[in-house]
Specification:
The protein is an alpha+beta fold. The protein is 21% helix and 29% strand. The structure holds pyridoxal-5'-phosphate (PLP) and 2-OXO-4-methylpentanoic acid.
Length: 346
């Protein structure tokens, strides 16, 4: 472990932060050997030294998470539903045969990293947050296709602003003819292979000036699954129903489940996890992408083949999307009351 030194002052324009790697001061590492995770510790070193035979490098045996720490108006620090990220990381670990990190160790590691990098948390009111990136990777000497002999659990932190430029601003998306995951594959696990599969479709979408690709269900290509880095939702024409795709090959988004709850209990909408057919978008007045990084990004329009479908507007945020955003973000920054257990103070 490297020991702490004095901290340099943070010189960032908090109001114009995007979503890019910034080397913050301390990160957490824990090693799994001989059947158990060690206690873990913080280090100043942002470079990993691992075996060239690591399964994470060759066979994609790894997974990751994403969650944020928010500076509240009273100066305190909020983590949003970290227990849900811990549970999802456990599910991802099970899917690719890695040892699970307990919820207790996961939240403790996040707390340590936030505390050690507290001066990197964007101030309240700037719209930024400290993004935490937990991960588990298979390491150690190996060459056959099998689970690794050793593992590393790490967490690092980066101050971030909007993932899609402009935050609560409509963006246009385009459907891809390629899939990010197979019908019974690893789509529901947050493993790197899904993201490797999304790099080319994502780049192709951006080449055509769309924010990202939208994936259709891999079996029939008739239903919307999700966006490359976020889940999808829509509001029906009568503004009465919040609908979001249900599929075993999409990532179970914590933001999406939070919005399902808020739409039902705070906006008194009907909520449905069901089919959103790509050729029936006329039935929806608004649509959005939701996730930790994306927060809520309104979808202006979707290009599918030769058809470009506009929802509410390509420039204006729809009224239901705005109410959902205010409710979600208000809870995350501590301005609105949170449902039981959603906010964990650091
Ligand atoms: N879908 C994908 C593919 C993602 O990468 C993410 C980001 O984590 C999400 C959905 C949203 O999940 P969450 O709301 O838990 O961040
Ligand atoms: C997140 O929202 O946490 C994500 O993981 C999305 C993307 C940065 C991969």
């Amino acid at each position: 472990m490297t020991t702490r030194t004095s901290r340099p002052p943070v010189d960032l324009d908090w109001n114009t932060l995007g979503f890019s790697y910034i080397r913050t001061d301390e990160r957490y590492l824990s090693h799994w050997r001989d059947g158990a995770w060690d206690q873990g510790s913080l280090t100043l070193d942002n470079v990993l030294h691992i075996s060239e035979g690591s399964t994470a490098l060759h066979y994609g045996q790894q997974c990751f998470e994403g969650l944020k720490a928010y500076r509240a108006a009273d100066g305190s620090i909020n983590l949003f539903r970290p227990d849900q990220n811990a549970a999802r990381m456990q599910a991802s670990c099970r899917r690719v045969l890695m040892p699970e990190v307990s919820t207790e160790q996961f939240i403790d590691a996040c707390r340590q990293v936030v505390q050690a990098n507290e001066h990197w948390i964007p101030p309240y009111g700037t719209g930024g947050a400290l993004y935490l990136r937990p991960y588990v990777i298979g390491v150690g000497d190996n060459i056959g296709v099998r689970a690794a002999p050793e593992y590393i659990f790490g967490v690092f932190a980066i101050p971030v602003g909007a993932y899609f430029k402009g935050g609560l601003t409509p963006h246009n998306f385009i459907t891809s003819g390629m899939d990010r995951a197979a019908p019974h594959g690893t789509g529901a696990a947050k493993v790197g292979g899904n993201y490797a599969a999304s790099l080319l479709p994502g780049a192709q979408a951006q080449d055509r000036h769309f924010a990202d690709a939208i994936y259709l269900d891999p079996a029939t290509h008739t239903r919307i699954e999700e966006v490359g880095a976020a889940n999808f939702f829509a509001i029906t024409r009568d503004s009465q129903t919040f609908i979001t795709p249900k599929s075993p090959s999409i990532l179970p988004s914590i933001t999406k489940y939070s919005l399902l709850h808020l739409a039902e209990h705070r906006l008194a909408l009907n909520v449905v996890e069901g089919d959103v057919f790509i050729d029936r978008l006329d039935g929806y007045a608004e649509a959005g992408a939701c996730g930790t990084a994306a927060v809520i990004t309104p979808i202006g329009g979707i290009q599918h083949g030769d058809t470009f479908h506009v929802f509410h507007s390509e420039t204006e945020v729809g009224p239901v999307t705005r109410r959902l955003y205010d409710e979600l973000v208000g809870i995350q920054y501590g301005d609105r009351p949170a449902p039981e257990g959603w906010i964990v103070k650091v």
